[in-house]
Amino acid sequence: MALKGNIPWNKGKKGVYSTTTLKKMSDARIDRFSGENSPCYKGKYIDGHGYVTLRVNKEQIREHRYVMEQFLGRKLSTQEHVHHKNGVQTDNRIENLEIISESEHNRMHALEKAVKGMVGFQLQTI
To answer: How many CB atoms lie within 10 A of CB 11?
Structure first.
């Protein structure tokens, strides 16, 4: 309700923009500043699993695999896993990366989980 003497800005205007037009305007505003269009976007981001991901030739690839492919000069097969030696998923220096098989990779992480589960474990003497 307007105060007496003040005329509301939209008096006499009915449906200047339709709801679909307003939605399109909102979407355009969001798209203009999101993802790769964001002023904060630097060409890569950290994905939901904690790995640095980047876009190469319109394809998303995890940076540690890309670094290893560039070092070797060839594409990696799906059976080749790139392991971070120090366990830090964002440390993609070539000296921190090694190629291992899927079974070896699974074994290494199973051992790490077992050791973490033993932290605080105390043997009881009978």
So the answer is: 8
Burial (0-12, 13-18, 19+ Cβ within 10 Å), 89: middle
- Pair type for strands 59-62 and 52-56: antiparallel
The rounded distance, in Å, linking the Cα atoms of 82 and 67 is 10
Provide the residue type at 51 as one letter: Y
Asked if residue 83 lies in contact with residue 98, where contact means CB atoms within 8 angstroms, the answer is yes
User: What is the DSSP code (8-state) at residue 87?
Assistant: S
Predicted TM-score (pTM) of the model is 0.59
**What pLDDT digit, counting tens, does each position of 37-92 carry?**
666 666 788 888 889 998 888 888 999 999 999 999 999 999 999 999 988 999 99
First to last CA, the chain: 83
**Residue position matching structure tokens 């307003």:** 22
Sign of dihedral through CA atoms 88, 90, 95, 99? positive
